[in-house]
Amino acid sequence: MAHYLTLEFLAMLIGFMLIVIGLWGMITQKNLIKIVIGFSLFDTGLNIVIVSMAYIKNSTAPIIDKAVDVSQAASKVADPVPQALVLTSIVIGLGVTALMLAYVLRMYREKKSLDINSYTDLKW
Amino acid sequence: MIKKGILLLLLVGFVAVIGSLLINFTGSKELNPLARYYAENGPAEVGAANLVTAVVVTYRGFDTLGEVTILFIAAAIVGFLLKVLNADNGRPNKLRKTSEILETASTLLVPTIFMLGVYIFVNGHLTPGGGFQGGAVIATGVMMIILARPASQFNHKLISILESVSGVGFVAMGVLGLILASGFLNNAFLPLGKLGNLLSAGAIPIIYVFIGIKVGSELTGILNSLKENQNEI
């Protein structure tokens, strides 16, 4: 039971919950804006999961300063690589969200509707 | 009904897959060899106190270049999709007047937010932060201008010049690393300096300033094209 109450496990649990909520939103909602929000939640949850995997027990942020000496850096810091990847992924997520909102605006301009069921052009 | 059942099945299956991942997850006790290498040799090789910055800008700098390109493409497509079709500015503005409080507060807060953004990307190699975060903070300042003064116009030419110059500057820094040091985006062609000083870590501060300006101007461009469309609908 004890290992279910650690920081990294709880962070990962919250991340997975956000992913499931986001997936549910993406596949059940009819409103285009809500689908975009679902995508955004999925993205955030994924980032939390990756960061929680980078955590090492009793470690600190990967920054060398008074608290972390250069010589003992390897034993005191968390993994910097997943953090760098998440830094990348947050910015990409922002760009993709903006792009999807632009598509939504453009679609609304064509048909004056945010309901996904009114866009049947690609449906056979 | 069948549709709903399939959706439920899909969600339950997905939860089962990630649930088994979650239950078997135990946090790691020590760094893996790659991270250990970065933690041990990063300060001496790169000179950046912030190891995440060392990974983002030098060890995996090529990834960052690709990421900046993706952001640029996203901004370009947003601008293309939301091109203002009938640009008659005489059309009545349907927007509600902004409140006195927001307008007054923005005159104080916007310069402060811009300064914070610049601080974040200048200190990217020492403290948490960097070009992307600083650029995003600058874009929040622009967002505040848009909220407080919806009628204000941004200079498209200035935004695109800033974006192009900083993008070219980023690549030029990489090529300088190729010529003067050992490889593309190697930061060691400038003196590494003392670990923890503002002027240290070779070319990292310069690259991060370029990234900060580029991200800030790209996000400003996206916000601007979204704003210019609010009268269209």
**In total, how many beta strands of chain B?**
0
> Structural class of the secondary structure composition of chain B?
mainly alpha
Helix content of chain A: 55-70%
What is the ordering of alpha helices and beta strands of chain A? HHHH
Kindly estimate the percentage of residues of chain B that lie in beta strands according to DSSP.
under 5%
Note the main sheet of chain B.
Answer: none
| Radius of gyration of chain B from CA coordinates | 23 Å
Instruction: Let me know the number of strands of chain A.
Output: 0
Low-confidence runs of chain B (pLDDT<50, min 5 residues)? none
CA radius of gyration of chain A: 20 Å
Q: Give the mean pLDDT of chain B.
A: 82
Name the biggest interface.
A-B, 48 and 60 residues
Unreliable runs of chain A, pLDDT <50, ≥5 residues? none
- The helix/strand series of chain B, from N terminus to C terminus, equals HHHHHHHH
| Number of helical elements of chain A | 4
Q: Based on CA inertia axes, which overall geometry of chain B fits?
A: globular
